[in-house]
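User: My instructor asked us to take a sequence, write out its structure as tokens, and then describe one feature of it. I'm not sure where to start. Here is the sequence I was given:
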Amino acid sequence: MKRIVFMGTPDFAVNILEGLIEHYEVVGVVSQPDKKVGRKQILTPTPIKKVALAHHIFVLQPEHIKTDYQAIIDLKPDLIITCAYGQIIPKPLLDAPPFGCINVHASLLPKLRGGAPIHKAIIDGYQKTGITIMYMDEKMDSGDMIAWKETEISLSDTLGTLHDRLSIMGKELLLDVLPSIFNRTNRRIKQNEEEVTYAYNIKKEEEHIHFSKTKLEIFNQVRGLNPNPGAYALLYGEVLKIYATDLSSNQNVENEPLGKITHLYPDAIGVKVKDGELLITEIKPFGKRKMAVKDYLNGVKQEELLGQILE
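Assistant: Let's start with the prediction itself. The structure tokens for your sequence are:
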């Protein structure tokens, strides 16, 4: 039985690790260090560490993998598999396993290299994305491709739905391709550097909605950040998280200022944007729970809300 070391951190990688545990010998798991979470700052293990411990698998959590990798080599893996690990793997570790190091990446490479490919696929308006299994090299997501599978991105998709679908696809594609890797019959195709795009980790300023954008741009931004971290605007100077919007056909707002609440519908707040009106349908007001806009409107003075500017 081939010895596999798995390196991953977030929920996205859980399906992949569980699939490996079911079919192969996972001799070690490497994950990011535990972090303090929540208001009480409770030290919390990563989702991948939780899975490993539940299956009594040895766990390593180096602070800096660039220099602290010898313990991984000492596990004598035949193959290292990474998925959303979160640190660049150093060359001595890449060169250690006889079958190399492969990565499960949530995009159709060379598109959307980086740490937020699912977010950016929706935010940037991609019509399709997918999973790529690739060999790792010293650069970010630039190694030779082994296999890939695509999925369409529908207008009803959010970060949450696409994340879950791609996670399952990643497990299935990896399990399909591993036999060919171990018998050395797999494909190895170089990426086209002329087609490269990037999906760097989401910055705080990318969560802020600018109503100078088009309806579709904001619609995609909100979907691409739902459920986490969530897009937001400021209302009465406080953060208003926005989790769902819809595309209004009302164009009778041409002379209104950007961000103005132009109409209150039974289940939506209409806001002026670059090319008309955007409908906001699900929100989380500051200090309150997430709710449908129809429920929010039942608890506020609508005459005061109408005409306010979202910033």
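For the description part of your assignment, you could build on this observation: The chain is about 25% helix and 25% strand. Try explaining in your own words what that tells you about the chain.
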